[in-house]
Amino acid sequence: MPADLAVIGLGHLGLPLAQAAVAAGIETVGYDSGPATDSTLTAAEVRRMSAAGFRVTTNPAELGRVRTAVICAPTQLGADRALDLSAVGEAGRTLAARLRPHTTVILESAAHPGVTEDYLRPILESGSGLRAGRDFHLAYSPSRLDPGNRTHGIANTPKVIGGLTPACTESAHGFYARLTEKVVRARGLREAETVQLLETNYRHVNIALMNEMAVLCHDLGVDLWDVIRCAETKPYGFQAFRPGPGVGGHGVPLDPNYLPHTTRTPGHPLRMVGLAQEINDRMPQYVIQRSAALLNEHGKSARGARVLLLGVTYKPDLADQEGSPAREIASRLLDLGALISYHDPYIAGWRVRDQPVPRAESLYEAAANADLTILLQHHRTYDLQGLAVKAQLLLDTRGASPVGAAHRL
Q1: Cβ–Cβ contacts within 10 Å for residue 228, how many?
Q2: How far is 259 from 245, CA to CA, in rounded Å?
Q3: Rounded to whole angstroms, how far apart are CA atoms 250 and 253?
Q4: Ramachandran region of residue 399, left (φ > 0), alpha (ψ -120 to 50) or beta?
């Protein structure tokens, strides 16, 4: 049965997009060569999508029967901090072999400026024999999904789109106008791609500032959380960000210094972005330093200490662990000889260094028995006032506990 839309890649971008399309009455098929990996939608939500007509397929022939195809393939930073586009390339080749004239192809995967035109376009054209901008439309739209956000979703978050040609832009605009209240036209592909670059780097740079402030304020004996509370009352010129044990999530901070040589600018790299990443990468080690110091102050050594980690996901009230600093913190604790366990209402089993970590079944009992409890993620189910009473030592890396109830980052 033909569909209006094919979503290629059913991960953290693809499934929510498909959900919004189905809710808007768009006949949607989801294509993925592997199982769906999104952990922000519940099984009940996926069942409701299926009941409304959403179909998942591994048959690439389905891609040749749609008017719009959105590529939501995962992209991550490699060890050299270059963006891995292999999944985008695979999706493009799969689509190209079935691409029909007049189809609108949109890339939503995280990408540096130039990916859509210089990387994806040749794949689509060589595999289909069609020409972008003449035979089919090609556009880019940065994802603005905020998993778990109960206020802003696809329908009420403005969508930015930029096409290879003005006609491509208008075609993509027509599609997204069916999903969201406002669509913003960028001048072209690279402007739309650079929106993603700016928004992601803005977040990382500001979190890095707060992480540096957290270290400074601890050394000065200043309550940074109270400082932020006061500062965010300013009605202009300030947006509140908060420190934490590290920066997780799917959004990756991109430094143009790591772009392919063909797309690099001749000027300086974004030095602030590189520094921000360096600062944020140091936070797990800072958590370890604070933990060891707290244990030492109470006459205990990190070696042999029983440490309970609370919340191992990257965002509160979600099961997604992408980029969470919890695993690095656990690994560093093991290096110190600590005996670790964890609790997370969303994670039934957790492994570090390919070894299972014991899961605390009784939260309060585990906190009472642990020499140190570290809050890494503040899930809504955690009663921090009650935990502070039960725990021998509580280090709160999220500033979520009542004043005086715990040691805060």
Answers
A1: 19
A2: 28
A3: 10
A4: left
Backbone φ and ψ for 57, nearest 5 degrees, come out as -140, 155
d(CA 319, CA 176): 28
Q: Name the token pair of 395.
A: 């280090």
Q: Give the pLDDT band of residue 121 (cuts 50, 70, 90).
A: very high
Residues sharing a CB contact under 8 Å with residue 8, sequence separation 6 or more, in sequence order: 14, 31, 32, 63, 69, 70, 71, 72, 73, 91, 94, 95
What is the C-alpha separation between 140 and 130, in angstroms, rounded? Answer: 18
Closest listed residue to residue 258, CA positions, set 114, 124, 86, 93: 114
Two structure tokens written together for 391: 């725990």
- Please report the sign of the dihedral spanned by the C-alpha atoms of residue 234, residue 235, residue 238, residue 244: positive
Q: Specify the pTM.
A: 0.90
Rounded Cα gap, residues 99 and 120, in angstroms: 13
Kindly give, in sequence order, each residue whose CB lies less than 8 Å from that of residue 157, ignoring residues fewer than 6 positions away.
144, 146, 180
Q: What is the pLDDT of residues 269-317, one digit of tens each?
A: 778 888 998 999 999 999 999 999 999 999 999 999 999 999 999 999 9
Query: CA–CA separation, 355 vs 361, rounded Å?
Result: 18
Closest CA to 136 of 175, 84, 99: 99
Contact 56, 30 (CB under 8 A): yes
The confidence score (pLDDT) of residue 37 equals 65
Residue 141 has pLDDT above 90, yes or no: yes
Q: How confident is the model at residue 223 (pLDDT cuts 50, 70, 90)?
A: very high
Both tokens of residue 36?
């769906």
